[in-house]
Structures are given as C-alpha cells and as structure tokens.
Amino acid sequence: QVQLVESGGGLVQAGGSLRLSCAASGRTSSTYTMGWFRQAPGKEREFVTAVTWPAGIAYYADSVKGRFTISRDNALNTVHLQMNSLKPEDTAVYSCAAGNPASVDGIRRVYGYIYWGQGTQVTVSS
Questions:
Q1: CA pair distance 17, 42, nearest whole angstrom
Q2: pLDDT tens digits, residue range 42-99?
Q3: Separation of alpha carbons 56 and 102, rounded Å
Q4: DSSP state letter for 107
Q5: Could you tell me whether strands 92-99 and 46-51 are parallel, antiparallel, or unpaired per DSSP bridges?
Q6: Of residues 67, 74, 76, 32, the one with CA closest to residue 53
Q7: Average pLDDT over the chain, rounded to whole?
Q8: Which residues neighbour 60 within 8 Å (Cβ) at sequence distance 6 or greater?
Q9: What pLDDT score does 29 carry?
Q10: What's the pLDDT score for residue 105?
Q11: Do residues 117 and 4 make contact, with C-beta atoms less than 8 angstroms apart?
C-alpha cells in the first residue's frame, strides 16, 4: 500500500503562483510514476502532469505546458507541482496519483494509476 497526501492548495489571484506537494509513504513508494490530475466542478478528472520512474521523464497537458513544472525527490518520496501564471480555468481539486502505466497513453489516463490522494483545492480568482 502507498499513501499519498497532498498539500499547498489555496486561493490565488490570476497570474499568481502556487506550489503543491505530494508526500508518499509506504512500501517502495518511490518506485512509481507520479502524476497530478485535477477535477473541476461538473467536469471529469483530467490529466495535468506526470513524472516517470526511474527515467524521470515529465509529461504535461497542453493546457499547462510552459506554466506548470513537476519535480520529484525520490529520497524524500515527495513530488512537487509548481504552478505559475495561474488562470481561473485552473481552478479544481488537484490530486496526486501513483502507478506504473504500461504506455505513454496510460501515463495520461486515470486508469494508469493505482493509488490516489484525497486532493487539495486550488482556486484562482479573476
């Protein structure tokens, strides 16, 4: 079992920045691909970004490319999501996920992940 706990959400004005963190604990928690997904009210959960293990390759949704940066610290079993130039449409509950997706497509899909955190709310005001 792997437990994931997100932190760092909050309210920010458009154009501002936030940094989310995901602390993983449990057996071999550092050996998974780690992803961030988000879900806005009335919408489906969508892929934001992920970083693979062990290669450390990062993938981004087109909507956040150039604004968001994912990073991982395997020694501390932590993943961070730096979000800059935030827009009102970034408002959502952001969830951390861990898994071993078998393909690049799987990296961008909910089904590619086994473990999920509870999520943290990000609200961007206009």
A1: 24
A2: 999 999 999 998 889 999 999 999 999 999 998 889 999 999 999 999 999 999 999 9
A3: 15
A4: H
A5: unpaired
A6: 32
A7: 95
A8: 48, 49, 68, 70
A9: 62
A10: 94
A11: yes
**Rounded to whole angstroms, how far apart are CA atoms 52 and 121?**
24
Q: What token pair was written down for 50?
A: 């992920």
Cα dihedral across residues 86, 12, 52, 112: positive or negative: negative
pLDDT at position 26 is: 85
Give yes or no for a cis peptide into 41 (omega within 30° of 0): no
> Hunting for tokens 């969830």 — which residue is that?
95
Residue 4 structure tokens:
């994931």
Cα–Cα distance between 89 and 12 in angstroms, integer? Answer: 12
- CA–CA dist 115, 113 (Å, integer): 6
104-124 in b/e form (b: 16+ CB < 10 A) is eebbbebebbebbbebbebeb
